[in-house]
Structures are given as C-alpha cells and as structure tokens.
C-alpha cells in the first residue's frame, strides 16, 4: 500500500444505479470540474436488472431506453382496464446498457477516475473521509457510498415484506402485444396478501414476466 493517500474532491463508492446516477449528475452540474473517483469491485456491465419509470418529457437517459410503452393493461377481479398513457409513457432501461453508457462517458473526462477494485474499508474524521482498497488509500472531502449496508439505528415501524420473482420468456411465434404492458394482473387465489403478474413485452415473441407479492405477515 502506498504511504501517501491519493486525494480527490469527491469519492463515489459503488458504481451501481445510485452511484453512477450521482456521478452523471455531478458531471452535468457545477461540480463538473471537480476531481472525482468512482470505485467498484466489478465494472463489467451486466443486464441483471430492469428499471422502469414514467416520464412526461424525454427521459435523461433516452439513448439507452430499451422500450417505451404508450398503453397499459390492468386485470383485477375479472375486470380488464386498458389505458392510453398520453402524458406519461412508461420506459424501460436495462442495467447493462445504462452502466456501459455512463461509464463510457465518465472515462472520457480527465478529472474523473474510474477504478475497479474491492473496497475494504470506509472511515472518516472531522477533516476528511477515507477509502481503503487492498493496495491503496484514497481521501476526499466527501465519500458517497452505496456499497455497504447503512447502519440502521432504528427499525422501520411497519416493515414491508416483498417477494419478487422474474423470468424472461421467448416464443417461436408472435403471441405478445408489444404496444402495451400489463402493469398488474392480480392473482385472486393468493389469500395471505397481495400478488400479481407484471408483464413487459419487448417484442411479439419476447417478454419479461415478473411476479411480485406482498405477504400480510410482518417480521418480528
């Protein structure tokens, strides 16, 4: 390990959705010229997550949007509701595309360093914050971290238990309607809470199927 720590204005510990979003917004703000270090143990983009959202205007990361829907379906208690999403279309972004696009932009900036290394320790004092890897020490005025779980001093009063299971399904024939996504198809047989299917059709023969459920029991 080096004797002298490397110094930056800001350090972002963790290059997931929140860390990269922060880095991108800093790059497009008054902080664009600050010396920034982004650290993560693995910087290889992987499509292991899908993020969806409504947006009235063109989304910030429009260049990596995989799919946009202007129509939605809801099925509940035998009824079917079909809605046109006139003001707020629904967008989907794959994590691999999002990560690759932001990392590519960050790496072109001379004042931003992107480092692939396991983060061993975070610490701080009144005058600086410090990050340690196996080989080096890095200091900054602030460290924004999303790589470790926060220290929760108080549990939530009403914790929500959620189970989420998803599949990607492809078929030999076009059987899906890619113009509309199923926001909720409620499972009426699920009696211990709330459960529904959530279907994102990427094309006529390929879609993402998710099954969230919210059990009514709570953890003690």
Can you offer a commentary on this structure?
The protein has 220 residues and is mainly beta. 11% of the residues lie in helices and 43% in strands. It has helices at residues 17-27, 95-107, and strands spanning 6-7, 10-13, 36-40, 50-54, 65-69, 71-76, 79-84, 90-94, 112-116, 121-124, 129-132, 137-140, 142-145, 163-170, 180-186, 193-203, 206-215. A 6-stranded mixed beta sheet has the order 7-6-15-16-17-14, with no helix packed on it. Helix 1 (17-27) packs parallel to helix 2 (95-107).
Which terms summarize this structure?
4-stranded mixed beta sheet, 220 residues, mainly beta, 2 helices
What layout of secondary structure does this protein have?
Layout: E1 6-7, E2 10-13, H1 17-27, E3 36-40, E4 50-54, E5 65-69, E6 71-76, E7 79-84, E8 90-94, H2 95-107, E9 112-116, E10 121-124, E11 129-132, E12 137-140, E13 142-145, E14 163-170, E15 180-186, E16 193-203, E17 206-215
Parallel strand pairs: 1-12, 2-3, 2-13, 3-9, 6-15
Antiparallel strand pairs: 4-8, 5-8, 6-7, 10-11, 11-12, 14-17, 15-16, 16-17
């Amino acid at each position: 390990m080096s004797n002298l720590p490397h110094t930056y204005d800001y350090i972002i510990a963790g290059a997931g959705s929140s860390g990269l979003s922060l880095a991108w917004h800093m790059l497009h703000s008054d902080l664009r010229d600050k010396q920034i270090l982004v650290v993560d143990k693995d910087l290889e983009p992987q499509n292991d997550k899908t993020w969806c959202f409504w947006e009235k205007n063109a989304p910030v990361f429009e260049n990596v949007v995989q799919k946009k829907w202007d129509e939605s379906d809801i099925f509940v208690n035998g009824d079917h509701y079909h809605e046109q999403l006139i003001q707020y279309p629904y967008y989907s972004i794959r994590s691999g595309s999002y990560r690759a696009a932001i990392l590519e932009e960050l790496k072109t900036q001379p004042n931003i360093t992107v480092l692939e290394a396991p983060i061993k320790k975070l610490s701080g004092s009144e005058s600086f914050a410090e990050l340690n890897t196996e080989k080096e020490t890095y200091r900054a005025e602030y460290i924004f971290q999303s790589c470790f779980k926060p220290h929760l001093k108080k549990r939530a009063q009403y914790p929500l238990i959620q189970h989420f299971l998803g599949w990607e399904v492809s078929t030999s024939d076009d059987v899906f309607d890619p113009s509309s996504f199923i926001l909720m198809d409620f499972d009426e047989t699920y009696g211990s809470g709330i459960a529904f299917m959530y279907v994102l059709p990427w094309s006529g023969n390929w879609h993402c199927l998710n099954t969230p459920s919210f059990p009514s029991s709570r953890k003690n």
